[in-house]
Amino acid sequence: MKRYPTVIFLSKQMEIKGIHRSIVTLSILINCFCHLSQMTFAFSIFGKIFKLGYHLNVVTLTTLMRGLCTNGEVKKALNFHDKVVAQGFRFNEVGYGTLIQGLCDIGETKAAIQLLRIIEVRSIKPNVVMYNTIIHHLFIDGLANEAFDLYSEMVAKGISPDLYTCNILIDALCKEGRIKQAKNVLAMMVKAYVKPDIVTLNTLMDGYYLVNEVKNAKHVFNLITKVGVTPTVYTYNIMINGSCKSKKVDEAMNLFQDMHKRNMVPDTVTYNSLIDGLCKSGRIAYVWDLIDEMHDRNQQPNVIIYNCLIDALCKSYHLDKAFELLKTMMEKGIQPDMYTWNILIDGMCRGGRVEKAQEIFHDLLIKGYHLDVYSYSCMPNSCIEDNSCMPNAVTFGIMIRALFAKDETDKAKIFLREMISKGLLKS
Fold first, then answer.
1. Of 24, 192, 196, 228, whose CB count within 10 A is highest?
2. Is there a domain that residue 172 lies in?
């Protein structure tokens, strides 16, 4: 446990009692103030070091730079660096790695690359940590090609990728659906004696599910314990969600039971996925036990879970129960979202309660809700003909474009004809 205030207090006691404080003690004190975001005090100690005639070291100066960067004052950190360098001091790889991290954190990835080029001229050899930082943020910025180019440059310079590098690459490739290339990175890891960790394997599993390669995802899951890696709750969440999306709810339930056997505590994501799978497969009776289990664990169901339940009740025409659940949800302080209302509007219309659907629709308009395409498409034409819920030309245009984009051509044509009949568009 890091007790920075205690360290500061002890340092003050030393000063009061006239006990000599070394450069090491004062550097520790600077580090404490930096972690507490008290940079004014950190620089006050820095000034005291000068007055006492101590020779500054790279650790103290890098600590101050890191403190500024961590507290979002990257420009001040750069100015501090420039002033110190102008006085003949040289920073090492750790110092420049700190600045590169700071620049990337504020979205200045290009500036970080420029700094990488500058330090090479100053005979400071960039390391894998610097490259990892920039590559990671290039992917975040959506600059995948630039990230891969920088990775190639790193390897060409004889800098070996580490586990973190490989995890960054595998994650990016899986998100793009390039699972074969991700497997190639894994093969490269094995060849280079870089042992995959749970992050690597979780990412691969998720990637396989994204491209609907369920068997391969299961293979990776079965491989986890064999290679001596401990699965996490996130590991099971990937598998449970993937199984439910593949309509293999029994397998998801078995995985859930396996979590219990391992004394693992499911989180809200686990319950969300499982409840969604059960509801969509029409097995709503099992869901209430899971809700009770959540309450026993002091985990409150969120709006996503309630939406799943309300949707299942509406689709099985238990409309009164759906409204009871809506009431329960609101009593617990969970506000319905637009998706909740759309489910209810659609459910009421399908269940023959058009007046109730229209009542909800009107109420949402009065309360200033921004009704979306789905809200309007759920309502029958008889309701839309009512002027009080009549969309204007702009709304009609948005709805029609969205329906065409979703290949729902028939619905789009209905709204187009409606638009013409209302004089909102010339035929």
1. 196
2. no
